Amino acid sequence: MDFDSVALDASSMAGPLEARLHAAVSRGFRRMVFAASDLVGHPQGVEAAVALVRGAGVRVQALRQLSDFEGLEGPLHEYKVTVAKGLLGLCRAIGAPMLLVSASGVPEAAADPVRVARDLAKLATLAVPKGVDIAYQGRPGSAVACDVVSAEERVNAAERANLGLAIDTGHLFVADRGLDALDRCYGDRLFLVGLSDAIALHPQEQTRGERDFVRVFPGDGSHAESLLELIRRLRVIGFHGGFYLNACNDDFAQLPPELVADQARESLLWLIDQLRHIDLPRRRIPAAVRA
């Protein structure tokens, strides 16, 4: 784990795209995750945003995100297909090899596993000509896939090589099953892991939801040991996908991007230092990568 292999989510920082890029690159980050709104919201348009990213010398790890795609019918489904095609086009334009997809949370989404698998397979097929992988992520409260285990079940049912699983540790430790959820995951179906920690806003309360936590970078919250154990377990199951740091919160949205990038850099340096003291299995490099 180093600055070449861990990306920074641009959404963790506020300000113009130019300022966020400069803040990340000047702190050593060579990979980034972008939201589609970062591109389409640029004052000079999408082409200018793409040129800016390419000129900054960073590699794009993923584009986020498509939401509420699967489990719909009729005109609403066709509308979401159009949205998906547009996002896949943005992936190709910016050089993003992966599109992050969040499980449907709208009431109209049916939890029928057959329909969900069909829709995810359709999305993966649409992504093939663009050379894009689909990283599917459970969403707390979703009737379709509310956690890591159910999201992986949907991915396995769709049976597409370019369709895999994404994990958000912010969800995992706050609203999901924690580290135990990883015991049922297969490393080759896991494409992307977002690393973040959380701090409880009301520490004395026994029952809390996601809104009762503030998302912070790894090492700054209450789940430091669990994060390190998660990385160890991921290595055990043969995970060779990507990591990215994500700490979107209301406070960081009011701070200069340089300050947030400093926090991200300190977080990654903390992870690197801590992992030196953990017995990790040797990382298995896929044959295609070795070649």
Automatic annotation (TrEMBL):
Keywords: Dioxygenase, Oxidoreductase, Pyruvate. Residues 42-267 form the Xylose isomerase-like TIM barrel domain. GO terms for molecular function: dioxygenase activity. This is 4-hydroxyphenylpyruvate dioxygenase.
